[in-house]
Design brief:
Helix content: under 10%
Largest sheet: 7 strands, mixed
Order of helices and strands: EEEEEEEEEEE
Shape: globular
Structural class: mainly beta
Radius of gyration: 13 Å
Distance between the termini: 40 Å
Length: 116
């Protein structure tokens, strides 16, 4: 069974930074993509940033230039460096992994709160 464990959420003032991490464990069978989604209160879950198995990355327009996704030494680890945070970035951030067979896994989420 695949598990995704996130860490790094918290409370920060606008303009500040946070770094999220996610590590996958279990029988992953290859990574097609791995990254982050977020869900704010009353809104749908949306893509934040994702990185494919060959390290190609994609970002939501709202975070381009402020957030950076990276891979750890292990292929099953992703980091999300979030700079210049805004109150509208407040959400629960979920780690997401899609394996080579198209099966999708989700972490339990970590709360990021940006105060104005």
């Amino acid at each position: 069974q695949v598990q995704l464990v996130e860490s790094g959420g918290g409370l920060v003032q606008a303009g500040g930074s946070l770094r999220l991490s996610c590590t996958g464990s279990g029988l992953i069978f290859g990574i097609n993509s791995m990254g982050w989604y977020r869900q704010a209160p009353g809104k749908q879950r949306e893509l934040v940033a994702t990185m494919t198995g060959d390290d190609s990355s994609d970002y939501a327009d709202s975070v381009k230039g402020r957030f950076t996704i990276s891979r750890g030494n292990a292929k099953n680890t992703r980091y999300l460096q979030m700079d210049s945070l805004k109150p509208e970035d407040t959400a629960v951030y979920y780690c997401h992994l899609r394996n080579s067979y198209g099966v999708t896994y989700w972490g339990k989420g970590t709360l990021v709160t940006v105060s104005s």
